[in-house]
Design goal:
The protein is an alpha/beta fold and about 200 residues long. The protein has a four-stranded parallel sheet with strand order 1-2-3-4, with helices on both faces. Helix 1 packs across helix 3. The model has no long low-confidence stretch (mean pLDDT about 90).
Length: about 200
Amino acid sequence: KYRVTGNPALGYQFPVPFLDARRAIRTVRANAAEWNVDPKKVGVMGFSAGGHLASLLTTRFADTFPEFEGKDAIDQQPVRPDFSLLIYPVITMETLTHGGSRNNLLGKTPTPEQIEKYSTEKAVTPETPPVFLVTTADDGVDCRNSLNFAIACKANKVPVSLHLFESGGHGYGLHGKGDLEEWPALLDHWLKTKGYEKR
């Protein structure tokens, strides 16, 4: 769980969710021995707007927040995920964005600099970890979010597995219907092939 933006009653603003997600990665690594986790096989998974948060972790892990981080031993742990699972993610803050997600993240009048910085397809580099993407052609979050992220991965020689299904809409989670029923099995195969599943 992480604190979300877009609810005036709670008052959380970005980068609070990003800080929470970064802390989660570091907490897992800091407790890896006790929790019987391989600290070199720590991934991130996000769906929809959570997919945007996961894509931020995937691409902007080198960002620094000295006013919020570096206060204890956990914050000394690496924050770069070893792999990234993005399921019908919001990626861009530009024309193809999901308007509600962008408003929740950046407000109704984001600056051009904010739009550029948080369009994560523009932040992919050769250091980006391997990515697994799932989306559908009829998703309310335009599938070109995922396609453009995959293209950016390809351009930077980042291993990427993209699965575009004809239909299924949005919000199916792990329980898609029809052809979408197979996507968790595709993910399982990918994790095994990449060596990320614990044996």
